């Protein structure tokens, strides 16, 4: 029997292909991303998607980007909490997956940012995501370069294994810190 939903950490019955914003919770996102490893685990020690997201949000702040872009950087991989991730070389062949992922990510952005990212915001977030990917690979794969450039980072990212509970807690504190500032409207 095929199930149409997953059961989240917060015990929501969530249908990833038809996301209900009322069932999206930052606690589910923080918990799941703190337990999911970057690079499909092809690194020497555990490095979570949540830690990557924290590094991206810190870089956005260091670059002086708006709180909205900082929050977008924190939650840019939040769909992976519900549908996992597919490596970039494979994802380019999975058109339906990309449609599902975009629908879900747009629902998450709408819940926490009020609307999906506009083109300029997406470019800022995507640039940081790519710069962090290059930097992570160099740090976690012993200098192996994915791209032919070395990004200039303005923050001091953490590239080490951290306890998932600590990362989850830091993710939530970062989220609530941005929200508490009253700059970004969200639930």
Radius of gyration: 16 Å
Number of helices: 8
- Biggest sheet: strand arrangement: 1-2
Helical amount among residues, as a percent range?
40-55%
Number of strands: 2
Structural class: mainly alpha
Order of helices and strands: EEHHHHHHHH
Q: Tell me the span between the first and last alpha carbons.
A: 35 Å
What does this structure look like?
There is one protein chain. This protein starts with 5 loop residues before the first strand and ends in a 7-residue tail after the last helix. A hairpin with a 5-residue loop joins strand 1 and strand 2. The chain contains 8 helices and 2 strands; from the N terminus they run E-E-H-H-H-H-H-H-H-H. The mean pLDDT is 92. The chain is mainly α and 187 residues long. It is globular. 53% of the residues lie in helices and 2% in strands. Strands 1-2 form a two-stranded antiparallel ribbon.
Task: Supply the key terms.
187 residues; mainly alpha
Q: Outline of this structure?
A:
The chain is 53% helix and 2% strand. The protein contains 8 helices and 2 strands; from the N terminus they run ββαααααααα.
